[in-house]
Amino acid sequence: MFRIQRRVQALLAVAALGAAGMFLGGEGWLGIDFGPVGAAVLYAALWVFVVHLAKYGGEVFPEEWSPAEKQAWVALVFVALIGFHMLNLLAALPELGTEADRLRNSATRPLWTNFGLLIFGWIVVASILRKQDGGNVGLDERDLRIAHRASRFADGAMVLLIIWLVVTLVALPEYSRTWLRPLIAANVLISLLIARALADNIYTVLRYRRERG
Amino acid sequence: MNAFAVRNRIRELRQQRATMTQADLARSCGVTRQTIIALEAEKYSPSLELAFKLARALERNLEDVFQYQENK
User: Which residues of A touch B33 (CB under 8 A)?
Assistant: First the structure.
């Protein structure tokens, strides 16, 4: 069991390296563009993880994790990856000028494929986990209480983010606001929803960890 | 203001019943085994309904299983 978990930890470390290459390597490091290599490493590592999960089932996660905690960890990883993609998009859109007004432009085109792959991967992993925990209690009063607290925390975080965004926009000088086109504003709002989901999942996994002592 | 805490003897009472595992207790109360672990570690205070289910599964009165104590 511990051998499988160590292998999965190594796999997640490789995936994190791939993600770092994918999200930070676009500009090129030492003249090498690590973006495509990072993406390939990330998706390969996620694929091997799915295979491990299907093959070794309950051995992949620590035994003391409840079904809801496993789902929260999986959600955290996938929401974080989706969030990184959105941040990348938000960084790229202002550079495009009027092209940013088109729904399909050079920055959003690869994004749809990546979002599709990530959401498909998330659905597959979540359904494998649900199937493996099928015979047991999946969600009890402690899980519901943690979910409720996480939701309240995430709502609070979103309110703070909205206030920060409003203050930032109001404080920005006129010339700096020219990049704020309708589709960029729409993506900023979607990013807020992703940030809320991220805050929800971070609170959830930390709470489970704390309650294990 | 004094701080109060709900203490419990779930682990002790469960271990007195040699054959009862955390999984057995979890199954009979309709919760996950991880919730029993959190309860035994006193990291989680159960609802009144779950407290009654636990007491019934351990064949004890509620006050044998749970105590409401002032933290020293």
Answer: 66, 136
Q: Is A71 on the interface with B (CB under 8 A)?
A: no
Structure tokens at A132: 């493996």
For residue B34, the chain A residues in CB contact (below 8 A) are 64-66, 69, 142, 212
What is the DSSP code (8-state) at residue A32?
Answer: B
Whether residues A140 and B32 touch (CB distance < 8 A) is answered with yes
Angle between helices B22-29 and B48-57 (to 10 degrees): 130
Which residues lie closer than 8 Å to A162 by C-beta, 6 or more apart? A192
User: What pTM, to 2 d.p., does this model score?
Assistant: 0.83
Q: What is the largest CA-CA distance in chain B?
A: 42
A167-184 confidence digits (pLDDT tens): 988 888 876 777 778 888
DSSP designation for A171: H
First to last CA, chain B: 12
ipTM surpassing 0.90: no
- Positive or negative CA dihedral for A36, A40, A45, A50? positive
Cβ-defined contact of B43 to A210 (cutoff 8 Å): yes
Record: contact A141-B43, CB cut-off 8 A: no
